[in-house]
Amino acid sequence: MSTETTATAGEQNDEQSQETKSEFEAITSQEDFDKAIQTRIARERAKFADYDDVKAKADKLTVIEDENKTEAQKQSDRLAEIERENAELKSGKLRADVAEAKSDPTKGIVIPASMLTGTTKEELEASADALIKFKGKQQAPRLHIPNEGNSPTNTSNPSDDFAEFLNTQLGQQSA
Description:
Elements: H1 2-23, H2 30-47, H3 51-68, H4 71-102, H5 121-135, H6 158-174
Helix pairs in contact: 4-5
């Protein structure tokens, strides 16, 4: 009996696909294309036509839930938020302290606190040590003076240069 049902279902699918193939019409003009697109857009918009109503109901439910909270629940929520902020501030302070302790600007070692990972002091120190090791041994920054220690290559006399300049300028004016 299941083979008969399967055969019947298969025949129906074949018939539907043949009907679909015979009903298909190629879009040959921009106007036909625009109509097809507008129809598709209208179907999609119809699916979400009640979005504003659903959103308004959800907002109303949120207000009702907030009103129904007891004072103890509100205080509990506020306390949880304060504890979370406190933990973030402590973590940031600990990161900054470890970064400052491990940094040594005279040796060229500066560790940004934002680069440290971990939650405990030991984890942060290990992270700082890993960053220092990764960066490698640094040399203290040196000043660079261009041509330091080099002799000047021009051995001409400045008075000769000036005389040559004047002759060139006077020669150009007279010419």
